[in-house]
């Protein structure tokens, strides 16, 4: 019992470490830029830009400040501001965080003092591939505008989405050279952020090693290898290949490797949650459930009764069904993770092939196992007959 208590305390300590990591600090904010949120836009911007209700104001990059308001009808009113001297300022909406196939709102004030704002569609990385007056942004009938107040330029536009806007990759860029016949010049600097329009938090995803895309991929690979490959492989060995001499060691090794990989995936998932501030209740909840069930399986290994114990049958039932439930929910969570992450066809086809292969192998081996049991002769006890 002392050993069991120590294992339970160790598991509780590990879970507390995970919870502490998930409550880490969010990206730092420029206090000087934050003070600019107190500027009263109604003094120089017309409605609805000048009188945003429930306005959220968030510094996002350098001197870029993002103000927005989102209504129950999914109308998003955006006012982007930054320090301005010459050239153009742009804000783009991307599907995957990349420039290609993104739609952007770009504004500038020409030397004559006239404000210009246009929508652009990025077909390629050269200026000729950035098409003016094209794009996929769902602009409303409210005209977009650009306004220069002192040394600050304001880009304002309004969008209407069919669903509530939540996590959105945003491109921010500027150039000191003016557009030439509405064709943009090469930007001087740019960045990509993942902005959560539900909470107002943002995360810089343009830094190479810290790119959230690579972290998401690593998180997915760890989950698929741990919960989707090694753990099912170990379970198959334990049920169908017990006639092999080393089945037990293969089973334990595969389950241990799967647990370590899955645990690493959970830790990385918590870091992504901390950095991106993305809330996916279904994926997170099922992931915690699978982790808890896996820890229970590890604890069960240390308290396994002897083969001749009267509790061994109960332990076998517990160990087998908890493992099946964990693998079932792990497969569901992998599919949910790919769905929420917007995984490409390669990921879906690859995991679909892996899952289909595992299910086919289980069906074949289960059928052979049951046929083997049917073929086994039933041995009836024989009793000696006493002659009279």
What topology emerges from the helices and strands here?
Layout: H1 2-22, H2 31-35, E1 56-61, E2 64-70, E3 75-83, E4 88-93, E5 103-109, E6 115-122, E7 130-132, E8 145-149, E9 152-160, E10 167-175, E11 189-196, E12 202-204, H3 212-240, H4 247-276, H5 281-302, H6 312-341, H7 345-375
Antiparallel strand pairs: 1-2, 2-3, 3-9, 4-5, 4-10, 5-6, 6-7, 8-9, 10-11, 11-12
Helix pairs in contact: 1-4, 3-4, 3-6, 3-7, 4-5, 5-6
Signal peptide: 1-24
Subcellular location: Membrane
Domain Cytochrome b561: 178-374
Describe the protein in words.
This protein is α+β, with helices and mostly antiparallel strands and 388 residues long. The chain has helices at 2-22, 31-35, 212-240, 247-276, 281-302, 312-341, 345-375; strands at 56-61, 64-70, 75-83, 88-93, 103-109, 115-122, 130-132, 145-149, 152-160, 167-175, 189-196, 202-204. The protein has seven helices and twelve strands. Strands 7-6-5-4-10-11-12 form a seven-stranded antiparallel β-sheet, with no helix packed on it. It has a five-stranded antiparallel β-sheet with strand order 1-2-3-9-8, with no helix packed on it. A hairpin with a 4-residue loop joins strand 2 (64-70) and strand 3. Helix 1 packs parallel to helix 4 (247-276), helix 4 (247-276) runs antiparallel to helix 5 and helix 5 (281-302) runs antiparallel to helix 6. It is elongated. It is found in: Membrane.
């Amino acid at each position: 019992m002392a050993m069991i208590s120590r294992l339970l305390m160790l598991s509780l300590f590990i879970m507390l470490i995970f919870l502490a990591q998930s409550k880490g600090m969010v990206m730092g904010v420029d206090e000087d830029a934050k003070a600019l949120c107190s500027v009263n836009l109604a003094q120089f911007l017309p409605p609805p830009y000048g009188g945003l209700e429930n306005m959220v104001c968030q510094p996002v990059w350098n001197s870029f400040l993002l103000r927005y308001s989102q209504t129950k009808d999914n109308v998003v009113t955006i006012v982007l501001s930054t320090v301005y001297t010459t050239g153009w300022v742009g804000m783009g909406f991307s599907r995957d965080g990349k420039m290609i196939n993104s739609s952007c709102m770009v504004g500038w004030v020409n030397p004559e003092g006239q404000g210009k704002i246009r929508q652009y569609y990025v077909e390629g990385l050269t200026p000729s591939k950035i098409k003016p007056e094209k794009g996929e942004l769902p602009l409303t009938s409210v005209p977009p505008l650009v306004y220069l107040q002192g040394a600050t330029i304001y880009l304002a536009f309004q969008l209407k989405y069919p669903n509530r806007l939540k996590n959105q990759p945003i491109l921010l860029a500027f150039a000191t050279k003016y557009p030439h016949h509405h064709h943009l010049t090469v930007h001087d600097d740019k960045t990509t952020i993942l902005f959560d329009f539900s909470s107002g938090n943002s995360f810089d995803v343009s830094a190479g090693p810290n790119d959230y895309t690579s972290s998401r991929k690593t998180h997915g690979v760890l989950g698929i290898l741990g919960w989707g490959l090694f753990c099912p492989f170990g379970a198959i060995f334990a049920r169908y290949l017990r006639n092999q001499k080393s089945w037990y060691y293969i089973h334990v090794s595969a389950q241990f490797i799967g647990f370590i990989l899955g645990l690493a995936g959970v830790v990385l998932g918590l870091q992504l949650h901390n950095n991106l501030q993305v809330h996916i209740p279904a994926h997170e909840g099922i992931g915690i459930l699978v982790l808890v069930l896996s820890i229970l399986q590890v604890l069960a290994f240390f308290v396994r009764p002897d083969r001749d114990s009267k509790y061994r049958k109960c332990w076998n039932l517990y160990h087998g069904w908890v493992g099946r439930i964990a693998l079932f929910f792990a497969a569901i969570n992998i599919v949910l993770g790919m769905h929420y992450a917007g995984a490409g066809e390669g990921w879906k086809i690859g995991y679909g092939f892996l899952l289909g292969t595992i299910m086919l192998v289980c069906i074949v081996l289960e059928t052979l196992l049951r046929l083997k049991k049917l073929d086994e002769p039933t041995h009836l006890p024989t009793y000696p007959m006493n002659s009279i």
